[in-house]
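#structure-requests
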Amino acid sequence: MTRLGSYIVYAPINVDDLSMTIRGHDSSKVFLLPSGITISELPEPSVEEASSSRNHGATKGSLITVALQIEISSAAINSDSVEAAKALVISTMLKIKDGLNFCDLV
């Protein structure tokens, strides 16, 4: 991992849309919504920061940033669509946590 971090970028696509595109059909109607994660290295705390009571026991670590794009019609925004989006975010975070063997997810 470089100082800038590691990136995973992906764009889920419907199997039928993928098949049509592979067969040479018009791909302009296929919507790709890229999503992804970055893992950035956190800097080592300075001696002063590490010894302060507020940062007692601070250690070097990583910051994970998740970006998801979800297509929802403005006419369809209701509590169900919000809950579905929330469930997707939580599910994604838990899968990342499990994949990286995190014991704590803040």
